[in-house]
Design brief:
The complex is a heterodimer. Chain A is mainly α. Chain A has one domain: MetI-like (MetI-like fold, Orthogonal Bundle). Chain A is 65% helix and 0% strand. Chain A has 12 helices and no strands. Chain A is globular. In chain B, helix 1 packs antiparallel against helix 12. The chains are: A mainly alpha, B mainly alpha. Chain A: Keywords: Cell inner membrane, Cell membrane, Membrane, Peptide transport, Protein transport, Transmembrane, Transmembrane helix, Transport. Chain A: Its main location: membrane.
Chain lengths: 325, 325
């Protein structure tokens, strides 16, 4: 496995570092900071920008949209069963007369929250564990590498599916923890690889010889130097977490009723997709567009934060697809 | 080299055993087959519940149950399902169904994925490259359960347009189909097209992205220029020297790809009504059947590990440095 290393992408580097040309002309009177450079690079990437707008729009829509609609998800319209979209129900209605827009928004809410939480938790854990394993090496490191190997054999989808009877009827937050518990390991492996090189760098050695304790070196010198990787990773993890959740929910192994997610909506309506396409197309459309937007933003972030990397979409990130599959 | 492959093989066998043990343990802990029995109305007599417990070895500790089950597996007996039917009877047919789908899907996926990747690398930033990129971006963001259902709707459309059932998307063969060997083959092919597409499209997108970037790395290298300088045509240099080198990092991906494929296959089998291993996993978990779940896990582990081992062989074949060490 090749690991993408952000060579020379250390904190405090100004724009001219990393051997990249400063391609945006700095405005007179304003110093070019790294933050500004990253922002300019990101803004120049049209797809990433569109993706960002779509993501923000979706979060807004998921939480504000239901307030604007006159139908609520627990309300049935007895004059409209299985109606295709029309003015009154813009996404149509299902077989008991529930407004599909209200239902889709509710599912979107849950899926988006789950995606965000899983990404935050798993990236944080990955940073800590990966850096510690790479820094200390030894038994913990061996164990980590082995667990990652094991996960390739025993896909996390399978494990969570097997465990699903256990969290049936419990809070959806358990599902978040489960998804996060299986998503951090591959990132941790990349973090570990980067820690191995970082720890030979002068500033880390200097800190060490000045008597800084290991946990401070990790927190102050190693993790901040991987910030770009971690930001990119957290972004892409939102997408893969949403895919993992919807995949499990599709079979009823994920989000359990009374909660609704995009996955349960798609799974519940996939059978009737050929006859009543609107039941399937709206939740599925939101899912695909969201994941697409996340991937574009992730790519844009990579280009902006780490110009030295080739435009590879995460060599190690087979996980995304595993859950997408 | 034989030593290297043998070491990897031993490593893989251990991993497969651990994976199966984990799945068996998790399933035994979370599943509650007796609870399902007790909820029946009228409740079954205590004696028959006791008998069922004994049948399922629930009175024994889990490691002992695993050893008993594994002992049977070694002799070709995978135990009995929860409805007391021997698993071995069904196993062969289901593996055949799944492997037909997987092998065809992955072969098409790798061939076209590599081809698409190479073409878009050679024609970088041309229209075809942008088109391939967009195509794979969208496909990578579309989970199999959405893609499969969309294909189903598409196939329905094609059938309606043609006026007969050309593309059949339910089941893997027509029940009670009469005809000679050739007609049988045609019937199977009709059933095979849409599900295989559902699997292969995602694989093509996945491999083409990596192949493109790994080919781009090679395109700029000195040895390729040297090959052309010594008189090889560009095409010959590209395929003899370039592609071979660009395929090396892909070899590891192929192994992971198979793991994803198995999970993706689960969705495909369910959507298209194929009674393969993936379908068995879902019914097994829903019925809280430990033996079935463990059997499917073992199958998945063996598949992934075999493809991992195959990747090692491929690696050794492509990269002379590994053969020497």
């Amino acid at each position: 496995m090749t690991v993408i290393l952000n060579e020379g992408d250390s904190a405090g580097t100004t724009g001219a570092a990393s051997g990249s040309p400063v391609d945006a002309a700095p405005e007179p009177g304003k110093a070019m900071t790294r933050g500004r450079l990253v922002l300019i690079r990101f803004m120049r990437n049209k797809l990433a920008l569109v993706g960002l707008v779509v993501i923000i729009g979706m979060y807004l829509m998921a939480f504000v949209g239901p307030l604007l609609s006159k139908w609520s998800y627990d309300q049935q319209d007895y004059s409209a069963f299985l109606e295709p979209p029309y003015a009154d129900h813009i996404f149509g209605t299902d077989k008991i007369g529930t407004d599909m827009f209200a239902l889709t928004m509710r599912g979107l809410q849950k899926s988006l929250i789950i995606g965000l939480l899983v990404a935050l938790i798993s990236t944080t854990v990955a940073a800590i564990v990966g850096a510690a394993a790479g820094y200390f090496l030894g038994v913990a490191d061996k164990a980590l590498m082995w667990v990652v190997d094991l996960l390739l054999v025993l896909p996390s989808f399978l494990i969570i599916a097997i465990l699903s009877p256990w969290f049936r009827g419990k809070s959806w937050f358990l599902l978040v923890l489960m998804l996060a518990a299986f998503q951090w390991m591959i990132t941790a492996r990349i973090v570990r690889g980067m820690t191995l090189t970082l720890k030979e760098r002068e500033f880390v050695k200097a800190a060490k010889f000045m008597g800084q304790p290991a946990r401070k070196i990790i927190a102050k010198h190693i993790v901040p130097n991987m910030a770009s990787l971690l930001i990119i990773d957290a972004t892409i993890n939102v997408g893969s977490a949403v895919l993992a959740e919807t995949g499990l929910s599709y079979f009823g192994f994920g989000v359990q009723s009374p909660d609704v997610s995009l996955g349960t909506l798609i799974g519940g309506n996939a059978e009737s997709a050929t006859t009543f396409p609107w039941l399937f197309l709206f939740p599925a459309g939101f899912l695909v567009v969201f994941v697409l937007a996340v991937n574009w933003v992730g790519d844009g972030l990579r280009d902006a934060l780490d110009p030295t990397s080739t435009r590879v979409r995460r060599r190690e990130k087979k996980d995304t697809k595993e859950k997408a599959a | 080299m034989a030593g290297f492959l043998l070491r990897r093989l031993v490593n893989y066998v251990v991993l497969a055993l651990v994976a199966t043990f984990l799945a068996f343990t998790l399933a035994s802990v979370t599943f509650d087959p007796i609870g399902v029995l007790q909820q029946r109305n009228p409740p079954p007599p205590a004696a028959s519940i006791e008998a069922k417990k004994r049948d399922l070895h629930l009175d024994q500790p889990i490691p002992q149950r695993f050893v008993t089950w594994m002992g049977g597996v070694v002799q070709g007996d995978f135990g009995r399902t929860i409805t007391d039917r021997p698993i071995t009877d069904e196993l062969g047919r289901r593996i055949g169904v799944s492997l037909r789908l997987f092998l065809l899907g992955i072969t098409i996926g790798i061939l076209f994925g590599v081809l698409l990747g190479v073409v878009s690398a050679i024609r970088q930033y041309k229209f075809s490259d942008y088109f391939a990129t967009l195509f794979s971006f969208i496909l990578l963001s579309t989970p199999v359960f959405v893609l499969g259902t969309l294909l189903k709707m598409g196939a329905q459309g094609v059938n309606d347009a043609v006026g007969s059932n050309v593309l059949i998307f339910v089941g893997e063969t027509t029940p009670g189909f009469q005809g000679n060997w050739f007609e049988h083959l045609g019937d199977r092919l009709q059933h095979l097209i849409v599900p295989t597409l559902a699997i292969a499209l995602g694989q093509i997108a996945y491999y083409s992205r990596y192949q493109r970037s790994s080919m781009l790395d090679v395109l700029g290298s000195d040895f390729l220029r040297t090959a052309q300088a010594k008189g090889l045509t560009r095409r010959r240099a590209l395929f003899k020297h370039g592609l071979r080198t660009a395929l090396i990092p892909m070899a590891t991906l192929f192994a992971f790809g198979f793991g994803l494929l198995v999970v993706g296959g689960t969705f495909t089998e369910r959507i298209f009504g194929w009674f393969g291993m993936g379908d068995w996993l879902v019914t097994g978990i829903s019925a809280q059947d430990t033996n079935v779940t463990a059997t499917v896990t073992l199958f998945v582990a063996v598949c992934v590990l075999f493809s991992g081992w195959l990747a090692d062989v491929l690696y050794a074949a492509l990269d002379p440095r590994i053969r020497v060490n």
